[in-house]
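Bumping my old thread because nobody answered last time. Still need a sequence for this structure:
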């Protein structure tokens, strides 16, 4: 067995959720207790009784931007699809794109809005080593306002082939999303409602925020022969002094730091790289894999992840190979719903 074979599993296609449940909190929650290697079946709505007074729930308040772009090559009319990655100085963007044939610098792409009308043109400036293009839109408007006009929700391809419906604009966003910049949702957070957040607070569970803008590389399957060879694309994140103080107070009083999602884990552990949690603002490419030692996170709520991805490696590293493998087998056997719009797991 190769190193990566440990992070593989078989999943019936019908278990990949294509839409969220009508009520987010009705999603099933597989509770995995590392202390006694037990597994129990609960629901997200049970979180107030599963967590304890004094625990601190850490959520990622990044907001997904409508980053999926559709258009055509202006000169030839050939279909083009792309993904906005980030904006840069001088009004340029970085995008990934695919089309038939080979693109060339100075060529342009005409973007179409949701109604199929021509909206914005992108001039291709330079291709980067990773295949992304530096482009310049012909509109001087703010990037987010352009994306709101022409962009689609950047659903992963396993959900309806990536084709959004209007409801996805709300569904593929956490209720506490605030700071725009992600091109994929921190999916564990999709299960929360305003009512559940109030109930958690009423039970004495603190809720604090950080920001990590989720990028395309997070979900990319590992293609290298070993984990050590794989490199994560840097993602920008921030945790401020107020959040650090609240988390430290929780720990001092014996509470648990409960990270909602692997993105929250990665930023917390980045900010505590020297053994002490500190405010942080900048990019992180932290790839959590064995024999990583966690400095901050005591418990993790997370969705079920694709095989052979860095996300699954992180969960195995946190929960233990044998226990998490058994948990995934149980989830498949019990017909849990998988991936972005699916059910969740709480590792204690």
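Sorry it took so long. Here it is:
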């Amino acid at each position: 067995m190769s190193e990566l074979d440990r992070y593989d599993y078989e999943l019936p296609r019908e278990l990949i959720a294509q839409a969220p449940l009508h009520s987010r909190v009705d999603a099933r929650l597989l509770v995995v207790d590392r202390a006694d290697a037990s597994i129990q079946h609960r629901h997200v709505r049970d979180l107030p009784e599963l967590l304890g007074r004094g625990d601190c729930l850490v959520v990622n308040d990044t907001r997904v931007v409508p980053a999926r772009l559709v258009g055509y090559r202006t000169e030839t009319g050939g279909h083009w699809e792309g993904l906005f990655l980030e904006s840069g100085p001088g009004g340029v963007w970085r995008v990934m794109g695919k089309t038939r044939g080979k693109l060339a610098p100075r060529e342009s792409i005409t973007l179409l809005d949701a109604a199929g009308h021509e909206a914005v043109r992108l001039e291709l400036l330079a291709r980067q080593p990773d295949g992304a293009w530096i482009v310049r839109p012909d509109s001087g408007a703010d990037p987010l306002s352009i994306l709101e006009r022409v962009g689609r929700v950047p659903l992963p391809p396993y959900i309806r082939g990536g084709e959004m419906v209007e409801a996805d604009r709300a569904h593929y966003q956490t209720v506490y999303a605030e700071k725009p910049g992600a091109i994929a949702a921190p999916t564990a957070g999709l299960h929360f409602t305003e009512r559940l957040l109030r109930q958690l607070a009423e039970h004495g569970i603190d809720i604090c925020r950080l920001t990590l803008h989720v990028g395309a590389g997070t979900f990319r399957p590992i293609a290298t022969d070993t984990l050590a060879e794989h490199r994560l694309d840097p993602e920008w994140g921030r945790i401020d002094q107020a959040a650090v103080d609240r988390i430290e107070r929780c720990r001092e009083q014996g509470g648990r730091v409960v990270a909602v999602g692997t993105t929250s884990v990665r930023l917390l552990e980045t900010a505590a790289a020297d053994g002490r949690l500190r405010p942080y603002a900048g990019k992180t490419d932290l790839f959590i894999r064995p024999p990583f030692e966690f400095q901050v996170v005591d418990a993790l709520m997370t969705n079920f992840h694709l095989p052979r991805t860095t996300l699954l490696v992180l969960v195995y590293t946190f929960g233990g190979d044998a226990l998490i493998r058994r948990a995934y087998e149980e989830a498949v056997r019990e017909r849990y719903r998988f991936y972005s719009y699916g059910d969740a797991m709480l590792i204690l």
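The chain has two domains: 4-64+169-347, 68-152. Let me know if any region looks off to you.
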